[in-house]
Specification:
alpha/beta; Rossmann fold; ten-stranded mixed sheet; 6 helices
């Protein structure tokens, strides 16, 4: 398989926005689940898809080391390459990783102002200017709507798309009308795409429940799952 074929056959093509790079206006996406179901794997596949199409990606990892985040990229990339029998896989990997930067924060130190400051330094020094921003491990337990509104303004200023991952908890049954669980249930209007990961015991996989797509809720939704052995996204 060639690189172009890998892009066209990616299951992420069914999600909107299809282009995770710059658009007419910034988009925000959210991946939610209980701990350990594959949120990071989803974000990494979104990042790789964006990088394959020539975009630069900044991966902000909260509470996870630089090395561990790199391992996520290496493992998932090679699983994708092997599954698709990708030609020139090592050469393409080297090319892609030059389009990615990883920025780490301790859980206590992350904030919109700090992120804005560090990213501004990268851009002003012409070191790195992302087309897509991923925030993995976002703590939305305290006033998430305020922080997320700030992040949306931040994205608008840079004209880039942002994807977040966030944890929901089994013992908190609060949920928005559209089906978004707490603690992001009051901030769902800020997102254009929302994905909820849910275990499917019968099929022995994790289903991607696409609650919101391209700003719209309801209607038919594509059927996507995570392969339990590789955590790759599959289209049913």
């Amino acid at each position: 398989m060639l690189k172009e074929d890998l892009i066209l056959k990616n299951p992420l093509r069914v999600l909107s926005p299809a282009d995770q790079g710059k658009t007419e206006g910034p988009r925000m996406g959210l991946v939610m689940s209980r701990a350990g179901l594959g949120k990071t794997a989803i974000l990494v596949q979104i990042a790789l898809d964006s990088m394959l199409r020539g975009n630069k990606v900044l991966h902000v990892s909260i509470g996870q080391s630089l090395e561990k985040t790199k391992i996520w990229y290496d493992d998932i990339y090679w699983d994708i390459a092997k599954a698709g029998n990708l030609e020139r896989a090592a050469e393409i990997q080297e090319e892609l990783m030059s389009q990615r930067m990883i920025m780490t924060f301790n859980e206590e130190s992350f904030g919109v102002a700090k992120l804005r400051e560090r990213l501004r330094d990268l851009i002003e020094q012409n070191i790195f200017q992302p087309d897509c921003l991923l925030v993995d491990g976002f703590d939305c337990s305290i006033s998430p709507e305020k922080v997320l509104a700030q992040m949306r303004d931040f994205a608008k200023g840079l004209n880039i798309n942002i994807w977040f991952s966030a944890v929901c908890h089994r013992n908190d049954d609060r949920v928005s009308k559209s089906g978004v669980p707490a603690p992001c249930h009051e901030a769902d209007a800020l997102f254009d795409t929302i994905i909820l990961l849910q275990p499917d015991a019968e099929k022995k996989c994790v289903a991607l429940n696409i609650i919101k797509r391209d700003g719209e809720t309801g209607g038919s939704r594509p059927s996507l799952t995570l392969d339990p052995s590789t955590l790759l996204i599959l289209e049913n």
